[in-house]
Design a protein that fits this description.
Elements lengths: L12 H19 L24 H34 L8 H10 L4 H8 L3 E7 L8 H16 L7 H20 L10 H33 L15 E2 L2 E2 L13 H29 L11 H14 L10 H11 L3 E3 L5 E3 L9 H18 L2 H18 L5 E7 H15 L1 H7 L3 H11 L16 H19 L5 E7 L4 H13 L3 E4 L2 E4 L3 E5 L2 H15 L2 H14 L5 E7 H30 L3 E7 L11 H6 L9 E7 L1 H7 L2 H22 L11 H19 L4 H8 L2 H6 L20 H10 L10 H11 L1 H13 L1 H16 L2 H8 L5 H20 L1
Parallel strand pairs: 1-2, 1-3, 1-13, 3-6, 6-7, 7-10, 10-11, 11-12, 12-13
Antiparallel strand pairs: 4-5, 8-9
């Protein structure tokens, strides 16, 4: 259809893009002598021939590609829709972005000063993980990224018909490759392969959108009428950083070794320095200003002479360009070496920068001189861009978290004690009280358990100590910005956390201060099950009461220039959901944050919550701005970390425009909530507490009645593709923590994955119908109260909307087909009857 005959509306955009891509795919199939498959292309025609045993594999491959093309078309359509909406109705029309947030604050008469002050508390950190829900191989991900860029390029009105034909040809070339290249892993990917994939986002995507994010804030700031002079420095913007679990997350993952962790830290450092080198090269060109040394302050020319002497290098060709010469000297101080073939590798020398702060100081010096010289615009733009990059990415690129299970640490510690103090071991191995007393007493001493005379212990012990020593070596040589924290999964008491300090002591990471021992690395409890969330406040209270913890928080505050003492706490969405269902999980996560915030406040500490969310509603997913609004008032105090897992990473960050949109949603949303939270007084004055604690308790009972039913496991193993998921080659990490064939040992990801694939989705609605019906029958006044809160309370609305979405994604016909796979008729009828009845009741209620 000619564009002159019909103007495409935003809602039609995905369909026109999809039709074009499918037509290209059809031509590719014909060119590859696969014409008999073309009738199977979905959405091009209504009727499809039957799938046979002979063509099944090829048809499935075709469907897989077609659904990926649909995703690309939808993403591009959403981007174009937002552009058109912003153009017609202004930046404030896009919910959750800076234009919308600042417009709202301006209407509430919030001053520029308060907003800028609040920005200083903001630190937003997405943390990328390699959790096994991304099925596509890295080579395939690259091809789909290229395909998306070509789809965007095709929209430009600047290309003539011949150039458009060339774009179409390039699109078909990629489709040719996709048809022949296997999309999924045949063998389990190595951790190095996952690292290569994740590195793409840290190296190619996030650095390239940083300046654009700042520009979007400035643009919205100006549009609402605020004074743009408030945003005249990189230090006033809300801070963003990035985290990484690939190469550091060893919880039940035997392939993540100390050498893998060391390799990861080295790889990220190299790529971070490559980016800095490129930025300094660009800055050098920008500062190619001819001037005489006599026009410049003496302290600047002396610094140039000092650098030349220190580096033993003369850059005489730049003598008439002192600013350029200065930046080139700074490039020489980077701890890298560029070979004749332009290959860059790490190389430390006595004069190299050890960390990014040293480089920042030198850049601030040239900024001061440029201002005196009258080149303020170069400082505001070119120099600030480099300083902003260093603030975010430094020489580390992303913070690497070291995560391990509390049981693993406990076993290793006992092994070490058995080696070094056998008499003590015999005393404490069966006496919990004696063990805890011994553990606390050890926190005041800085002598390690092991020395060169001790035998190394078990392989598990050797590897654990080697990991801490690898981390210690990196931090002592460079800076502690490379490490995010030491996460203890399945934290069940404070002693699980104290144990980690003893491992740090073994690696020489503890130091003696005036008030006792301290460590610059952060120990982070991870509360995952319903029971652990309930006990989390008392665990945190006991933890923060120990002097070594307070000393460590003080040290971290000094080193990282925090305004407050900050303790990070991670809460797990997936395991709490697997443990008790969506209602119990949502409430206990919500209420635990309120109580934990109170405990921290008592100790004079601010909390940074780390939300361990996944890509499905069962694992905490939902619209970012609504998720932030639904957090307990005042629990969000400025700093927040959120996991981005598996296929969610590709969906949100595969291209720069989408990455910028999702990051802006997060940064603007956190900033907005902090400003609103400053108005809140009492954080435990939630009117929904009694209502939701009752709902959580009742739904927990219903959910447990299902998962503990004698026939449940047999039904689950046959009526869902859990066997295929467990044996799949999607990710390097095993599906079970320790290999035991129990529901408790099964990870939450394959649990949710299996229910999603079978379209039963029970982890995001089961138990809700029975609970609501009971409330309506027994306490109708509370039922009416709940309906009222649906309209006024963000948390209630968020939870119920997510349940509603999950019900819409549940398919009764597909459920029944999967249930028919159960061999025992009685097992099938019993469990499927429970599922179907609860589904119908939940939908009704």
């Amino acid at each position: 259809m000619n564009s002159s005959e019909h103007t495409i509306t935003p809602n039609e955009k995905p369909y026109t893009d999809l039709t074009f891509l499918l037509q290209c795919l059809k031509e590719v199939l014909i060119e590859n002598n696969e014409e008999e498959l073309t009738p199977f292309i979905p959405w091009l025609q209504n009727d499809h021939p039957a799938i046979t045993k002979e063509n099944m594999q090829r048809v499935l491959r075709l469907y897989s590609i077609c659904f990926q093309l649909l995703n690309l078309a939808e993403v591009n359509g959403a981007v174009q829709d937002r552009r058109i909406k912003a153009e017609k109705s202004g930046l404030e029309s896009i919910n959750g972005l800076w234009g919308n947030v600042l417009d709202s604050l301006k209407k509430e008469n919030v001053s520029e000063e308060l907003i800028i002050e609040s920005f200083q508390d903001v630190v937003v950190e997405p943390v990328l993980t390699a959790h096994p829900t991304e099925a596509k191989r890295p080579v395939v991900l690259v091809l789909y990224r290229e395909l998306y860029l070509l789809l965007v390029k095709r929209e430009s009105g600047n290309y003539n018909s011949y150039e458009q034909s060339e774009i179409t040809f390039e699109i078909k070339q990629i489709l040719h490759k996709l048809w022949f290249i296997g999309e999924i892993f045949i063998e389990k990917p190595a951790v190095e392969s996952e690292l290569e994939n994740i590195l793409h986002y840290f190296y190619k995507v996030f650095p390239s959108v940083l300046n654009y994010l700042d520009y979007k804030l400035k643009e919205a700031w100006t549009q609402v009428g605020y004074d743009v002079n408030y945003l005249n420095s990189h230090t006033v913007f809300p801070r963003v950083s990035f985290g990484n679990w690939v190469g550091g997350d060893r919880d039940g993952h035997p392939l993540v070794t100390s050498s893998i962790t060391a390799h990861t830290l080295k790889t990220f450092r190299l790529h971070a320095l490559k980016l800095v080198n490129n930025l300094l090269s660009e800055l050098s060109d920008s500062l190619s200003i001819f001037c005489d040394d006599q026009e410049l302050p003496t302290y600047f020319t002396q610094r140039i002479l000092q650098l030349e002497e220190e580096l033993n290098v003369s850059l005489a060709e730049f003598n008439k360009e002192p600013f350029k010469k200065y930046i080139e000297l700074l490039r020489h101080k980077l701890p890298i070496h560029e070979s004749d073939d332009k290959n860059i590798e790490l190389k430390d020398t006595p004069f190299s920068y050890k960390n990014s702060h040293e480089l920042e100081d030198d850049l601030l010096l040239v900024g001061k001189v440029l201002k005196q010289y009258g080149a303020q615009s170069l400082v505001d733009m070119d120099l600030q861009n480099v300083l902003r990059h260093l603030q975010v990415f430094g020489f580390h690129l992303a913070h690497l978290d070291i995560r391990q299970n509390s049981k693993h640490y406990s076993d290793v510690l006992m092994d070490i004690i058995n080696i070094s103090l056998p008499a003590t071991y015999n005393t404490i191995k069966k006496d919990r009280a004696a063990f805890e007393k011994f553990l606390v007493s050890e926190l005041s001493s800085n002598r390690p358990f092991l020395n060169t005379y001790h035998q190394p212990g078990s392989e598990k012990t050797q590897e654990t100590i080697a990991t801490f020593r690898a981390v210690s070596k990196h931090l002592k040589n460079y800076s502690d910005r490379a490490i995010g924290g030491l996460i203890v999964s399945m934290t069940q008491n404070a002693h699980d956390l104290f144990t980690v300090y003893l491992f740090m002591r073994e690696a020489g990471l503890t130091r003696t201060r005036e008030n006792g021992l301290a460590c610059s690395l952060h120990v982070i409890p991870l509360f995952e099950t319903i029971e652990d969330l309930i006990h989390a406040p008392e665990i945190l209270d006991a933890y923060l009461s120990q002097p070594i913890v307070k000393n460590s928080l003080e040290l971290q505050k000094e080193k990282r220039k925090y305004n407050h003492l900050i303790q990070e706490v991670m809460v797990g969405y997936s395991d709490s959901n697997k443990d008790g269902g969506i209602m119990a999980s949502a409430w206990h996560l919500y209420y635990a944050q309120i109580q934990l915030t109170e405990v921290a406040k008592k100790h004079g500490v601010s909390l940074r919550f780390f939300h361990g969310k996944g890509g499905t509603i069962s694992r905490g997913a939902g619209p970012t701005h609504w998720f932030l609004k639904a957090l307990p008032p005042y629990s969000l105090q400025g700093q927040i970390r959120i996991t981005e897992q598996g296929e969610t990473i590709e969906r949100k960050y595969a291209n720069k425009v989408n990455a910028a949109y999702n990051l802006e949603l997060l940064i603007a949303g956190v900033s907005h909530q902090i400003i609103k939270n400053k108005q809140q007084q009492n954080i435990d004055n939630s009117p929904i507490k009694e209502l939701f604690s009752h709902l959580a308790s009742e739904s927990f009972k219903t959910f447990k009645a299902l998962t503990t039913h004698p026939s449940f496991i047999r039904f689950y193993e046959q009526a869902t593709p859990i066997d295929a998921i467990e044996s799949s080659k999607i990710g390097s990490r095993p599906a079970r923590r320790s290999g035991k064939r129990t529901l408790a040992d099964l990870r939450a990801i394959p649990w949710v994955f299996s229910w999603t694939q079978s379209r039963m989705q029970i982890s995001s609605w089961y138990g809700i119908g029975t609970t609501l019906q009971k409330m309506k029958t027994d306490t109708p006044d509370k039922f009416q109260e709940l309906k009222k809160y649906l309209k006024s309370d963000n948390f209630v609305r968020y939870v119920m909307t997510n349940v509603d979405t999950s019900l819409a994604a549940t398919d009764e016909k597909v459920m029944a087909l999967y249930a028919d796979l159960v061999e025992d008729e009685k097992v099938k009828n019993t469990i499927f009857g429970m599922l179907k009845n609860e589904f119908l009741l939940t939908r009704k209620m």
